[in-house]
């Protein structure tokens, strides 16, 4: 039984590693849906006042979407790789292709949450009804035999999203709400269709333009994930041991627990890495080859001792080296 459970956990781990982007985007979308529902219940209250409805409705849709987009850009590690590339190697040494691909990846991932927010807002229709109610043409309403009264039409229509207005105009209120929700949901479904088509086209373009086979591309993705995990774990241990050595040098001793003592004994750290080495393994990187041998990362390239990993700027660093 224990072996069966361990095997299932191993399978789930491999599945999640291979589908990390898809699952991450799915979790972001689900979190956005939950946040949108909470916002609608707790925070959304249409002012039901002319000129204010339009501003409030658009703000309720656009501002959270913009905030989610900026948060997605900030939390993406590729953003800071791109910044580091421009900082350490200057923009003139950055070719357009890698920067465009990386920027597209950053914007694509950051757009998952705001697009989800906008779609859910449009499908619910509350913000759209609030924003557009005062702009409905009164002459187009047919709920009453005598038509909608033209006097104070804008003020009356603006109060419809709150269920207010003269009792004899309740039929018009239902018609306005039904019409605006139809428009809102139509825009929501159209947005879903446009996004689905764009994702499909981007995936097709990515696989058509890739110089790698499907298996090698999967291997490269696994390598990047493993390198990142091992690098973070090793950096944490290295920094901890280095800090312990420096504290010992200052005080003459260092208070260590059992795990720290084992780390220091097992991984002796003499010094820290110089800044040029950090700069060499930081920044934008696409797939490259050297005499037919793949270079899967900046760290891999640095280990091979190839040109362009020192302190001097490398003018061909961003050039396509794929054979």
Describe the fold and architecture.
The chain contains 13 helices and two strands. It has helices spanning 2-18, 20-42, 52-75, 77-89, 96-110, 112-124, 126-132, 153-159, 170-209, 214-251, 258-266, 275-280, 298-303; strands at residues 288-290, 293-295. It has a two-stranded antiparallel sheet. It has two domains: 2-209, no CATH class; 273-323, no CATH class. A hairpin with a 2-residue loop joins β1 and β2. It has 323 residues and is an all-alpha fold. The model is unreliable at 1-19 and 308-323 (pLDDT under 50). α3 packs across α5 (96-110). Helices cover 67% and strands 2% of the residues. It is found in: Membrane. Belongs to the CALHM family. It is a multi-pass membrane protein. It holds the Pfam family Ca_hom_mod.
Map the helices and strands.
Blueprint: H1 2-18, H2 20-42, H3 52-75, H4 77-89, H5 96-110, H6 112-124, H7 126-132, H8 153-159, H9 170-209, H10 214-251, H11 258-266, H12 275-280, E1 288-290, E2 293-295, H13 298-303
Short description:
The protein is mainly alpha-helical. The chain has 13 helices and 2 strands.
**How far apart lie the N and C ends?**
49 Å
Kindly provide the radius of gyration, computed on alpha-carbon positions and rounded to a whole number of angstroms: 29 Å
For the biggest sheet, the summary is: 2 strands, antiparallel
Q: What's the order of the H and E elements? A: HHHHHHHHHHHHEEH
Q: Which spans of ≥5 residues are poorly predicted at pLDDT below 50? A: 1-19, 308-323
Order of strands, widest sheet? 1-2
Q: Compute the number of helices.
A: 13
Number of strands: 2
Sum up the overall morphology in one term. Answer: elongated
Helical residues, percent:
55-70%
The domain count comes to 2
- What is the strand content? under 5%
Q: State mean pLDDT (0 to 100 scale).
A: 78
* Class based on secondary structure composition and strand pairing: mainly alpha
């Amino acid at each position: 039984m224990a072996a069966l459970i361990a095997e299932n956990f191993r399978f789930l781990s491999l599945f999640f590693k291979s589908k990390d982007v898809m699952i991450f985007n799915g979790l972001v979308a689900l979190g956005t849906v939950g946040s949108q529902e909470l916002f609608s219940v707790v925070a959304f209250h249409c002012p039901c006042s002319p000129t204010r409805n339009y501003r409030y409705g658009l703000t309720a849709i656009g501002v959270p979407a913009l905030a989610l987009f900026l948060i997605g850009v900030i939390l993406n590690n590729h953003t800071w790789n791109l910044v580091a590339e421009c900082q350490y190697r200057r923009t003139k040494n950055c070719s357009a292709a890698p920067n465009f691909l990386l920027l597209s990846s950053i914007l694509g991932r950051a757009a998952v949450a705001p697009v989800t927010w906008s779609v859910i807002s449009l499908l619910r229709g509350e913000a759209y009804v609030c924003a557009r109610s005062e702009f409905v043409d009164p002459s187009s309403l047919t709920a009453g035999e005598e038509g909608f009264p033209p006097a104070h039409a804008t003020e009356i229509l603006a109060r419809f999203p709150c269920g207010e207005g003269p009792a004899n105009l309740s039929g018009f209120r239902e018609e306005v709400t039904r019409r605006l929700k139809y428009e809102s949901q139509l825009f929501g479904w159209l947005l879903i269709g446009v996004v689905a088509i764009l994702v499909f086209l981007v995936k097709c373009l990515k696989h058509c333009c890739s110089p790698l086979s499907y298996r090698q591309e999967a291997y490269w993705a696994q390598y990047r994930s493993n390198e990142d995990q091992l690098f973070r774990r090793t950096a944490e241990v290295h920094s901890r041991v280095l800090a312990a050595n420096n504290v010992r040098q200052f005080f003459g001793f260092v208070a260590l627990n059992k795990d720290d003592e084992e780390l220091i004994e097992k991984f002796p750290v003499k010094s820290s890495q110089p800044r040029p080495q950090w700069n060499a393994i930081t920044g934008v990187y696409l797939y490259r080859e050297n005499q037919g041998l793949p270079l899967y990362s900046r760290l891999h390239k640095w280990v091979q001792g190839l040109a362009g990993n020192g302190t001097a700027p490398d003018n061909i660093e961003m050039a396509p080296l794929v054979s």
